[in-house]
Specification:
alpha/beta; globular
Length: 623
């Protein structure tokens, strides 16, 4: 197996860093790792490093400043910011004050900010810059508990004088003075923390109503961090990237806290648009991302290949074919002949290593994907490059990971066996996956009835995912309970399988299959703007804006061709008969998308009801 991927993915035994709370673990890490680098960020074109000692000094000053402002143990502070180092510093400072840290998406509107700050009873609000400050100021009068707004970046705000706000730099200065007078204050708060105390709030995306604040204790976070290292190891020699929203459980747990526990260096991208560039600069050794990112990398290679020479295309086809042959044998548990191994070494040297460098994953020991289903073919493609892609499954309510693919045995299309720190079962009557363990959340804030509905009578968390398990204990998600389509003819259809096959195309970013109680299936498509625009330019297709691009006959034919190819893989009743392209370029700020850039099925069905009905008005048309 080592011919395909690095055996250093193997789990590590023992406790990497002592501490029964996140705060205690952090301060133990500062003492143990002192001058070593933990965090890195790019400023003015240069990467700047933060050692554990420097990070500890900043966190202690922020914590002292919070206590000087009267921040009490058990109170909540919210953070409204993109993924930057200041986010981590403030999060750890709040936890070091024995407080509760709550993250708010930077794309949230002022109305959403008001709801989340009010529901969480936040007394302190950290904001990134003037844009986020404007939101905070617009709702401040309606937040009577809010004592102070702290601003990270004061650019353009130095002339603003407001007693209700201050800069992060000023808070740190206040903290230095407070700590000088109360040298044991931070240490005392950390020592008084109990593992069962509430640590963080992570609000769900609210696709079926107002967001719900999932409550996570220190025990849940610590146990998950330890457990992850016993499945997918990291160490101080590793480099990871932080670019997903820190208010989402994926980056908070899999990025910040897991790196805190293991000592893995955490590199912060400049902004979401520079991720491809920053990946190549950082060349992470471990890489966690959502399927949207992996699909984007693959489509970039696919498009670049079309622009390459005939010789390069032939060389790539041969090399990826060798990689696929190796991957197929390893996945099947078969021995790899020496002749095939040598061809793979040559394929990597001539072609595949260059593809890896083009993406920025040439140093990666493994890749981790989660938060949404991913095409098994995409996993096999990365395996063919010589890098294991490990799918994990979980949810906000389980600290992010409940099952995880093991690097020693990968099964594309599966989400792996249950993580050893929790139990996973399939409910006999419904097929629903249910979870029990120390990583499971403590309930929804202020919503005891919703909390009760989320658990079975015998204490198992209802996940809402339908699945199956094989003889090796590997689970597979078939769909969301609410998403299964039952056609007018009574046929049960799993839309995610069709959607994943469609998203393997470089021209389709996301797709939603429609057909519940209908005579046939139809499709809503969100195109990949960059790749479709490139197609249009290469084929002299005229367009003036995004909407006209989606209406172009050539683009419609391009997507129809993708659908026709996918239809050939499914039974007639599962084939798409009609489709329409969303003519609006969606971003994370649009209500149709979740923060992880997935289309919200129910909202899309409701918002585009007229277009959907039009696809059924004239019958099935051409199959």
């Amino acid at each position: 197996m080592s011919v395909l991927w690095n055996p250093d993915c193997a789990p590590r035994e023992g406790i990497a860093m002592a501490g029964e709370t996140i705060a205690a673990m952090f301060w133990n890490a500062v003492a143990a790792r002192g001058p070593r680098v933990w965090l890195r960020e790019k400023k003015l074109g240069l990467w700047q490093a933060w050692t554990w000692t420097q990070t500890g000094e900043a966190v202690r000053e922020i914590a002292g400043g919070l206590m000087a402002l009267g921040f009490e143990a058990g109170q909540t502070a919210s953070i409204l910011s993109n993924t930057v180092i200041d986010w981590v510093l403030c999060d750890l400072a709040v936890l070091s004050c024995a407080g509760v840290a709550n993250g708010i998406y930077p794309t949230d509107a002022a109305e959403q900010l008001h709801y989340l700050a009010e529901d969480s009873h936040s007394t302190i609000l950290f904001v990134e810059d003037d844009e986020q400050l404007d939101k905070a100021l617009s709702v401040r009068e309606a937040l009577p508990r809010l004592k102070k707004i702290i601003v990270f970046d004061m650019e353009g705000l130095h002339q603003l004088h407001d007693e209700g706000m201050m800069s992060l730099a000023a808070l740190r200065e206040l903290g230095r003075a407070y700590n000088a007078e109360h040298p044991d204050a931070v240490r005392g708060r950390v020592a008084a923390l109990r593992p069962e105390d509430l640590a963080i709030l992570v609000y769900t995306s609210g696709t079926t109503g107002k967001p719900k604040g999932a409550m996570h204790t220190h025990t849940a976070l610590v146990q998950t961090a330890r457990g992850l290292n016993a499945i997918i190891a990291r160490g101080e020699e590793d480099e990871a990237m932080a670019f997903l929203p820190l208010c989402h459980i994926a980056e908070r747990m899999g990025g910040e806290y897991f790196s805190l526990y293991t000592g893995c260096k955490l590199n912060f991208v400049e902004n979401p648009d520079t991720v491809p560039e920053n990946v190549r600069e950082i060349a992470p050794t471990v890489f966690v991302a959502v399927p949207r990112v992996w699909e984007k990398f693959y489509s970039g290679v696919t498009i670049a290949l079309k622009e390459s020479t005939r010789l390069q295309q032939v060389a790539y086809a041969w090399a990826i074919g060798v990689g696929r042959a190796i991957a197929d044998r390893v996945l099947a548990g078969e021995a790899v002949p020496a002749s095939l191994k040598w061809r793979f070494y040559l394929a990597r040297w001539l072609v595949l290593d260059n593809v890896r460098k083009m993406i920025g994953i040439h140093r990666a020991r493994h890749l981790v994907t989660g938060a949404a289903p991913i095409s098994p073919e995409l996993i096999k493609w990365y395996l063919s490059l010589g890098i294991p892609m490990l799918e994990v499954w979980g949810m906000t309510e389980t600290c992010g990971v409940s099952t995880a693919m093991r690097p020693q045995r990968i099964k594309p299309g599966s989400i792996g066996p249950a993580a050893h720190y929790n139990q996973v079962r399939i409910a006999p009557a419904t097929g629903e996956l249910q979870v029990k363990g120390p990583n499971v959340f403590a309930g929804y804030l202020n919503l005891p009835e919703k909390t009760a509905e989320t658990f079975t009578e015998d204490g198992w968390l209802r996940t809402g995912d339908v699945g199956a398990v094989d003889e090796d204990g590997y689970f597979r998600i078939t769909d969301r309970m609410k998403d299964i389509i039952i056609t007018a003819g009574g046929k049960n259809i799993t839309p995610s399988e069709i959607e994943n096959a469609l998203k393997f195309s470089p021209y389709i970013t996301d797709a939603v299959v429609i057909g519940d109680r209908r005579a046939y299936l139809t499709l809503i498509v969100m195109i990949d703007q960059e790749n479709v625009e490139k197609f249009a330019q290469d084929h002299d297709v005229p367009f003036s804006n995004y909407a006209s691009l989606t209406r172009a006959a050539e683009v419609q034919a391009l997507i129809q061709g993708v659908i026709d190819e996918v239809n050939g893989k499914f039974a007639r009743v599962e084939q798409i008969k009609k489709f329409f392209l969303l003519d609006t370029q969606l971003t994370a700020e649009d209500e149709e998308l979740t923060p992880t850039m997935k289309l919200k099925r129910r909202l899309v069905e409701k918002k585009y009801a007229a277009q959907i009905e039009a696809m059924y008005a004239g019958g099935a048309g051409k199959p």
